[in-house]
Each structure stands twice: as structure tokens, then as C-alpha cells.
Specification:
Length: about 110
């Protein structure tokens, strides 16, 4: 993962997401997924713009199948927005930067 977007695994999920003091946007994705590749630069941009206010992470569903099952991920990309360790928002499918930003704002 590049820059401010953290790789989320079953091992670090609690520390990176559940115990976070700021909202966390988690992108469930896979390397073979075209729409996931379209969303990736948007996630990077938002991570830079919202640094310190919102944390961003990515879960590779092929490598972290337990996490994908735990959160009932059936289509990718799926963005889950966590606050205080609970899912507060969900975006399934590729979306524009403004749409993702609006989802983040309405989940706070």
C-alpha cells in the first residue's frame, strides 16, 4: 500500500480499525478487479486530503477471506466506513470522489 492507505489484515484489524480514534474507510478489493483499480487513485487522493481526520485502509479479499466473510462482502469494490469500531456506511461498486466523500460525511 502506498502512503497513507494502510493494508488491513485479520491480524491488525483491531488496532487499525476497531480501536481507531478517527473514522476509518476500508476498501475491500482484489488485484484482478477492474473497478477496484478505478477506485484506488480516488482513495489515495482522499487519504491525502483527509489526513489526520479520516484513516484509509485496504483489504485484499483474496488474501483476507475471513474479513470479507465477517463483513458480508459479496461484490467488490466495497467501501465500509467505520466509526468507533462499527460499520456506519457502505458503498458497493465504483463511485466518484464526490460520492465517496459524501458517504464519509454522512457516516460521521
Amino acid at each position: 500500500m502506498a502512503g497513507l492507505v494502510h493494508e488491513i489484515t485479520d491480524t491488525n484489524f483491531s488496532q487499525e480499525v476497531a480501536q481507531s480514534t478517527v473514522p476509518v474507510v476500508v476498501d475491500f478489493w482484489a488485484e484482478w478487479c477492474g473497478p477496484c483499480r478505478m477506485v484506488a487513485p480516488v482513495i489515495e487522493e482522499l487519504a491525502n486530503e483527509l489526513s489526520g481526520k479520516v484513516k484509509f485502509g485496504k483489504v485484499n479479499v483474496d488474501q483476507q477471506q475471513d474479513l470479507a466473510r465477517r463483513f458480508s462482502i459479496q461484490s467488490i469494490p466495497t467501501l465500509l466506513i467505520f466509526r468507533d469500531g462499527e460499520v456506519r456506511g457502505r458503498q458497493v461498486g465504483a463511485a466518484s470522489k464526490s460520492h465517496i466523500l459524501a458517504k464519509i460525511q454522512e457516516s460521521q
